[in-house]
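Why should sequence recovery work at all? Because a backbone constrains its sequence more than one might expect. Tight turns favour small or flexible residues, buried strands favour hydrophobic ones, and helices have their own preferences. The token representation captures these environments compactly. In the example below, the structure is given first.
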């Protein structure tokens, strides 16, 4: 198909998407009352029902109930002395209990948005927004034992709407968007940026502010060999430059050639490359700069064999496995997974338009964030599912390895951190995150 004709179709599709965005899967969709969940948080329940096997269909998920009805208690007050400390990090355990008479609940979900692992510790960040997104509390970082899921500690962030948590060289950082203004822009101010976590003192401080970055930190990765951070700095729709940050000196540099880095960031440790997805399109002139680009610290190169001004496959999620990037694209009307994005003539495999990639233990997974949602292990050769299982409702946002045989899945729309089998995606256990809905 002629690329310019496709562009016009793409523009029409995007207009339809904007008209329906109020029903997007990114909005909280919780039916359980947070207070009711808290009242049962001290009781240990049996694990949730296993998910339905969907490996015969790559995009159609039968309606099943969410496993959020059953939760394991995550109260830190029941920790043993061994569980209260992490062998890889100097952590102190929080023992303060909040009285139910002195708290209110912002929402029925604390909006678990991102996961990270370091040693035997699982890091999880919560956005803590109201159901209609009209209000939000400061973000929260929670630390769990990676294998057992036991809550070790919580640390309150200094700013709101966190987007990513990363650990490098023993240091933990959290990027934050902050609140949007009335025009849905993220101003360059002190209410957003990159926070640095003091794990021993259980404190967080704004390390590189939005004033210096130029806007909100909507995505964030770290090159673990150089120690430099890379931030997708959201200013306004379609204006998201890529900024390099020296996390020691706080010096910043804008990477020329990227206009809308909202198409995902990925660090390839094998090749020591940064991958960035550019989704830029001027909806008036239809000038485009679309594609996945690699950056080695000096050179920015398109990985596709098509010119960025002709490429129409808009990247949405990028993950690298064994030195090769894999890409999920979407135009907000349909989505496809590409096992060989470099070849513009290759065929993608269709999935729900809002899907996200994740890696764990050298394998690639795809989360369809539909309602109901699904999890699939991907075949790296043909781009089809090895297996696919329903996750029910809840909007899965991220995934990391718990151990060789299991995965932790973060849910955004329900108050749940779920452990599933790495072999088939079926539920092993569920942990309630409802207590993080509380505000004093």
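From this structural description, the recovered sequence reads:
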């Amino acid at each position: 198909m002629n690329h310019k004709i496709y562009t016009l179709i793409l523009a029409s599709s995007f207009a339809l998407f904007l008209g329906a965005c109020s029903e997007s899967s990114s909005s909280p969709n919780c039916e359980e009352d947070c207070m009711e969940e808290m009242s049962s948080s001290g009781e240990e329940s049996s694990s949730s029902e296993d998910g339905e096997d969907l490996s015969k269909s790559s995009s159609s998920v039968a309606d099943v109930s969410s496993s959020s009805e059953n939760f394991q208690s995550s109260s830190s007050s029941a920790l043993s002395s061994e569980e209260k400390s992490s062998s890889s990090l100097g952590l102190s355990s929080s023992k303060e209990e909040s009285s139910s008479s002195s708290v209110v609940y912002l929402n029925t979900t604390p909006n678990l948005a991102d996961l990270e692992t370091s040693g035997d510790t699982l890091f999880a960040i919560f956005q803590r927004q109201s159901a209609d997104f009209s209000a939000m509390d400061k973000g929260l970082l929670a630390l769990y034992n990676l294998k057992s899921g036991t809550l070790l500690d919580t640390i309150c962030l200094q700013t709101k709407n966190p987007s990513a948590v990363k650990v490098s060289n023993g240091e933990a950082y959290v990027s934050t968007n902050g609140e949007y203004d009335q025009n849905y822009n993220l101003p360059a101010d002190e209410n957003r940026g990159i926070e640095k976590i003091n794990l021993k003192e259980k404190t967080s401080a704004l390390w590189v502010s939005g004033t210096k970055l130029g806007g909100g930190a909507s995505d964030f990765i770290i090159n673990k060999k150089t120690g430099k951070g890379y931030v997708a700095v959201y200013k306004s729709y379609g204006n998201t430059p890529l900024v390099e940050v020296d996390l020691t000196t706080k010096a910043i540099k804008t990477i020329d050639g990227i206009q809308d880095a909202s198409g995902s960031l990925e660090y390839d440790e094998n090749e020591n490359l940064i991958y960035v997805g550019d989704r830029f399109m001027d909806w008036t002139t239809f000038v485009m700069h679309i594609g996945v680009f690699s950056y080695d610290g000096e050179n920015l190169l398109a990985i596709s064999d098509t010119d960025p001004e002709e490429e129409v496959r808009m990247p949405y999620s990028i993950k690298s496995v064994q030195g090769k990037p894999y890409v999920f694209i979407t135009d907000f009307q349909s989505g496809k997974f590409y096992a060989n994005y470099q070849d513009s003539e290759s065929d993608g495999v269709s999935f729900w338009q809002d899907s996200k990639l994740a890696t764990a233990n050298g394998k690639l997974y795809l989360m369809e964030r539909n309602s109901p949602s699904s999890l699939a292990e991907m075949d790296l050769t043909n781009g089809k599912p090895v297996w696919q299982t329903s996750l029910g409702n809840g909007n899965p946002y991220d995934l990391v390895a718990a151990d060789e045989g299991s995965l932790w899945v973060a849910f955004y729309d329900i108050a749940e951190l779920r452990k599933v089998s790495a072999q088939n995606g079926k539920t092993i256990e569920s942990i309630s995150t409802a207590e993080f809905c509380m505000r004093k």
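A few observations help interpret the result. The CA atoms of residues 129 and 136 lie 4 Å apart.
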